[in-house]
Amino acid sequence: MANTYVRVDDRLIHGQTIVAWCPTLSIKEIIAIDDESAKNPTLKSIMKMGVPPAYTTHIVTTEEANALLAQESNVNRLVIVKQPAKLSEIEAGITKAESIILGNIAKREDTIHKVSGATGIFYLSDQDVAVIDKLASQGLEVFFQQLPNTSKTGWEAFKKSI
Fold first, then answer.
1. Which UniProt keyword terms apply here (predicted)?
2. Strand extents, DSSP E, 49-119
């Protein structure tokens, strides 16, 4: 049975994704969701340059992602979004995901929560917290983790700190 994993990482596809996360999770299909990148052939080409041909790679708009996620898959998928807010737009397609892994999330104007420690530094807004909290309340495992071999901080532990 194939599994879907969701990662929030504002870098989308990068070296850590390819050399660490994909092998660890036995990923065969990558779905990077970013409307701006999906509409820019140059950005799409640059992002795909570092992806070995062993992976089926999609850099898609939110609408295209929802169509892909509605289809059954027989391979493990890694769905990547830049910001937690995007998760609410693809919620129907990720309700059966194994987990939501919070990766690199840089500081923005609206971020007020900072999570730091052995797993890296992550910044969240109140809206981010509300979106993720809703998904966690539906039974999805949510945690902060930079790399598969680093420690992780669970969502509930973070919630107790704010």
1. Sugar transport, Transport
2. 56-60, 76-81, 99-102, 111-117
CA torsion 114-116-119-124 (nearest 10°) is 0
What are the residues facing 78 on neighbouring strands? Answer: 5, 30
Q: Going by DSSP bridges, is the β-strand pair 76-81/4-8 parallel, antiparallel, or unpaired? A: parallel
Give the C-alpha separation, 115 to 67, whole Å. Answer: 33
- Looking at residue 85, what DSSP letter applies? H
Report the predicted TM-score, pTM, of the whole model to 2 decimal places.
0.94
Residue 94 has pLDDT above 80, yes or no: yes
Residue 51, judged by CB atoms within 10 A of its CB (0-12, 13-18, 19+), counts as middle
CA–CA distance from 7 to each of 41, 70, 127, 147, 160 (Å)? 23, 18, 17, 11, 22
| 151: confidence class by pLDDT, cuts 50, 70, 90 | confident
